[in-house]
Amino acid sequence: MSDIAIRVENLSKAYQLGDFGTGTLSRDLERWWALMRGKEDPFLKIGEVNDRTSKGESDIVWSLKDINFDIKEGDAVGIIGRNGAGKSTLLKVLSRVTSPTTGNIKVKGRIASLLEVGTGFHPELTGAENIYLNGAIMGMTKREIKKRFDEIVDFAGVDRYVDTPVKRYSSGMYVRLAFAVAAHLDSEILIVDEVLAVGDAEFQNKCLGKMGDVSKGEGRTVLFVSHNMGSINQLCNKAILLNNGNILDYDNVSIITPKYFNFGKNNDASIALHDIKRTGNGYCRFESVELRRNNENFASREFSIGDDLNIVFKIRYKDDPIPLKMSVELKTSDGLKLSNMIDVDSGYQTSYIPNNSVIKITLPDLRLYPDTYYLSLYVGDLSSVEPYDYLEDCISFDIIDGGTLTTRPLPRSAGLLFLTPKWEVL
Amino acid sequence: MGDPTTNDSYKDSTTNDVHIQKWDLEIKPQSSVFDLHLKDVWAYRDLLWLLVRRDFVSFYKQTIFGPLWFFIQPIFTTIIFTVIFSKLANISTNAAPAPLFYMAGTVAWNYFADSLSKTSTVFKDNAPIFGKVYFPRLIMPISIVFSNLVKFGVQFILFIIMMAYYLISGNKVEPNLYILLFPVVIILMAILGLGVGLIITAATTKYRDLAFVVTFGIQLMMYATPVIYPLSAAPVKYRTLIALNPMSGLIETFRYGFLGTGQFYPGAFIYSVIASIFIFLIGLIVFNKVEKNFVDTV
User: Does residue B198 form part of some domain?
Assistant: First the structure.
C-alpha cells in the first residue's frame, strides 16, 4: 500500500486579477511578441504572494506557488486553510478543470472529483435518466452505472421517484441522489470539496460514513477539502495546511488541525478599550482585555470544544486601590445570558488588588456548541450597588467545529451544551 | 513553518527512486497542439449518446406534439420562402417545384446553421459544468452536432415525403447518381459547422464581441449561400465569390443529387471538401488549446 497515488511537482497556478475587457488584445499581442523573441511572459512576474488583503503591484496573482507533495495510495488527506489559501485552486487543477501554469501532477488510477453535487443534472429528466447522465459526466461507462444502479437508488432513498423528473424532487432528495451517484464511482481516487455543507444532519453523517467506507474500507485514496475540522478529523489520516498558495505543513491530521486554529490569529484578538461604550463611575476601569487558548500566551478568538478559555485583562484605578467585586457575563449570539460568573462564586475573595494588575480568569473545558459567544465585564463595589465599570458584550469568541473531543459535525441549531455523560449498562 | 523552500520535504522519500512507477495520467501546463485527446473522447462515448438523448428528450417533454415540432419550422419557412422569393420576387428555382427547392435548402442550411450557432456558445453555455468536472470538452460540441443530426433526420423524412409526392404527381424531379454523395455532404456540413463553431467559441472565451456577430452573421451567411436561389441564377461576377463559401458547393450538390435540377460543380465541391476539413482541423486545435484554461477567463 505504499505506492504513490498522486505526485505533485513544482505546481503553480497564476490568475489574472481585475477586468479582462479592455486591453486584453494589446496585452495578448505583447505577450505573443515576447514569446516570439523567446523571452519570458512579461505578465507573469515571479514572487508575488497571494495575499488578498494587500494590493499587489502586478495584477497577476499566484494562487498556488511551487507546491510539492506526494499522496500515498489509500490515504485520506484533508486540505485545510483559510479562504483564499489555494484549496479550491488545488482541487481544480487536480480534477483537470483548469490546467497548472507551471509544474505537473502525476496520477496513478482514475480520479473522480466531486466539486459540486449534481453537476449536469437536467431538471426535465427523470431520476434514473439523471443517474446515467451524471454518472457518465463523472467518467463512468453505461455498463458500470447499470451495475451499481440499484445501490445508488437505494443509498439515495428515492425508489419511488426514479421515474419522476428531478425538477419535482425536494431539494433534499435532489442532493441525496446527486451524492449517491458520486459516492458510487469506481475510481481509485476521490476528490471531494465541501459538498457536505448541504443536506440535513442525518444525510451529512451518511455521506461522511460513506466516504469513510471509501477510504478505510475500500482502500481508495480520498482528498477532502473542508473548513470543518470535525469532519477532517473523522475522515482523514493526513492533512495539508495551505496558506497563501504555499504548503505550511503536511503531516498526520492530529498534528495539523491544531495548527490550523493557531496561525495568523494574533492580529485583532486583543482589544483596546478606549472606544467601547461603557457605563459606571470609573473609580476602577478595565484597561485591556484579551482571550487566550489553553496555556498559550498569545490572544486568540477561536476555540474548539474542550479548550480552556482564558480571559485576561488589566485594571487601573482612578485614585487609590479600592475593594472590588468582579464578574464576567457569557451570552450567546442571540443575546441569551448563559452565565454570570462572579468572583466570589469561585471562592475568589479580593482584598486590594494593586494598580495595573493583570488578571486571568480560566474557564476550563469549554462545552459550548459551535457559535459566536459574547463576554461582558463588570467591576463594582463589594455590595453590588455602585458599578465602577461595565463593558457590555465587549469581546466575542467563536467556538469552531472540530477539535479532539468531537467525532461528528455539530450543527449550530442542535444544542447549546456539548455534554459527554458516562454511558453504561447496569 | 511557512518557508516555501522546504516544500520538497513533503515528498515521500521511501518510495522515491526505489522503483519506477507507472503513471496513468500526467497533468501538465501545456501539451502539444496536435495532442487532441481523441482517445479520451472515445472513452467517454457513452456520455456522448446520453447527451444526445438528453437534448432530444428534454426538447419534447411536456409538449403535446413532441418531435412533430421539428416539422413546424421547415414547413413554415418553406411556405414563406415560396411566397416571397418565388411568387413575389420571381427568383429562379431551376425549374424545380419551388416548395421542394426551398425545403431542400432550408433543411440542409438549418442543419449547418444550428450546429454552428449552438457550438459557438458551448463554452459560455456549459461554463457551470466545465468549471466543476472534467470530461473531454470536445464531447459537448460533438453531442450538439449529433443532436442536430437527429433533428435533421426528422426533417429529412419530411423532405423525402414531399419529394415522393412531387415525383408521383409527375413534376420535374429527377434524382440521380449524385445522391450517393449525400452522406459525404452531411458529414462535411457537420464538420464545417463544428469547425467554425469551435473557432468562434474558443475566441469568445476572451472576446465576447464575436458572440454578437454570430447571430446575425449566420442570417447574412444564408444569403451568401445558394439556399434561396440556385448558384446558376447568381450574376456571373458574384458566382466565384459565392463559391468561396464552402457551404455553397455542399448545398448545390445536395440539391442536385435529389432534385436533378441545376448542375454539379466538381470544382466547388472539391473546394468545399478541402475547406471543410481544413477549418475543422483548425477548430479542433484552437478549441483544444483554449479548453484547458477557459474556466479562468470565461
Answer: yes
